[in-house]
Amino acid sequence: MQAVTYEEYGSADVVHVGQAVRPVPGTGQVLLRVHAAGLDRGVWHTMTGTPYAGRLAFGLRRPKNPVLGLDVAGTVVALGPGVTKLAEGDEVYGFGQGTFAEYALAREAKLSRKPVNISFEQAAAVPVSAATALQTMDAGRVRPGQTVLVIGASGGVGTYAVQLAKAFGAHVTGVCSTTKVDLVRSLGADHLIDYTSEDFADGTRRYDLIIDIAGNPTIRRLRRALNPAGTVVIVGGEEGGSWTGSMDRQLRAMTLSLFIRQRLTMVIANQRCSDLERLTALIESGAVTASLDRTYPLEQAPDAIRHLAAGRARGKVVITV
After folding, report:
1. CA 321, CA 124: separation in Å to the nearest integer?
2. For residues 173 and 147, is the Cβ–Cβ distance under 8 A?
3. Cβ-count burial of 92 within 10 angstroms (0-12 exposed, 13-18 middle, 19+ buried)?
4. Closest Cα to residue 126, out of 306, 244, 269, 231?
């Protein structure tokens, strides 16, 4: 089968499109004919092997799994032993393994029925980013009427965070660059802050809940924009050292939270079928839409990764197969 592979850590230059062995489903797994696969920062971290602590899972010296990709939308073509809820021909989406390929494996417990009102390309843009955003809402205990600030509102996770906060009845302000203001407004944000000309922490507004996806603001600035009893949820970010990345900042925030009234917490996303089922209901009701930046064919996967790494994406980038 055709697949996007890499044999060493590095930039998109180490990624190649070639032939790989078609996998065979094991216990609890299904084989999918991949129609589309989502691309996010997690793929970039897997490809580069950074932060270095991640190599404990990815492989210390070289990648354990030579095929990239996690988000997937496709059709079930074979069942492994113990699979009881899915059948051949089912259209599903969720979390797979090596999904930048014509065929990929996924655990039955990490897949859900594809929403009937969206395409495979749109469905592939949902799992990792939307599930992360949903878990962020849960961690922040979002409630109707709250004021919510989403920092990094135009990215993969941010576009879903804006929509979910609105769906749960919050009043949402999105932080993004000038070129992405229209996108964030179209997702339902009540207010926009263009970080190139405005400072969300200038003291003029305070928020009940701050979702920090960008990872750039200092903890001091986040607290300055937060109500006295408000909550900050740190999702990720690209700041930090080579070894632990943004984890240092997240741990500092949680430690500080023990001694102050404000609540500072973090989210490390989990892959749960229950989240996919909640998202399916929200998508089919029209409360959430798949925010798709652009699609690339499988053979152009290195270019798709470069586009994401350059920070030009407005929403989710998807690989079509």
Report:
1. 11
2. yes
3. buried
4. 269
Please state, in angstroms and rounded to a whole number, the distance separating the CA atoms of residues 126 and 169: 21
Instruction: State the distance between the two ends of the chain, measured CA to CA, in whole angstroms.
Output: 11
pTM for this structure?
0.91
99-150 confidence digits (pLDDT tens): 999 999 999 999 999 999 999 999 999 999 999 999 999 999 999 999 999 9
CA dist 224 and 240 (Å) reads 21
Give phi and psi for 225, each to the nearest 5. Answer: -95, 5
Domains and CATH numbers, the chain: 2-126+290-320 (3.90.180.10), 129-266 (3.90.180.10)
- Backbone Cα Rg of the chain: 19
Neighbours of 87 (CB within 10 A): 10
SS3 annotation, the chain: CEEEECCCCCCHHHCEEEECCCCCCCCCEEEEEEEEEEECHHHHHHHHCCCHHHHHHHCCCCCCCCECCCEEEEEEEEECCCCCCCCCCCEEEEECECCCECEEEEEHHHEEECCCCCCHHHHHCCHHHHHHHHHHHHHHCCCCCCEEEEECCCCHHHHHHHHHHHHCCCEEEEEECHHHHHHHHHCCCCEEEECCCCCCCCCCCCEEEEEECCCCCCHHHHHHCEEEEEEEEECCCCCCECCCECHHHHHHHHHHHCCCCCEEEECCCCCCHHHHHHHHHHHHHCCCCCCEEEEEEHHHHHHHHHHHHCCCCCCEEEEEC
**CA dist., res. 26 & res. 201, Å (int):** 51
Please name the residue that has the structure tokens 């590095």.
10
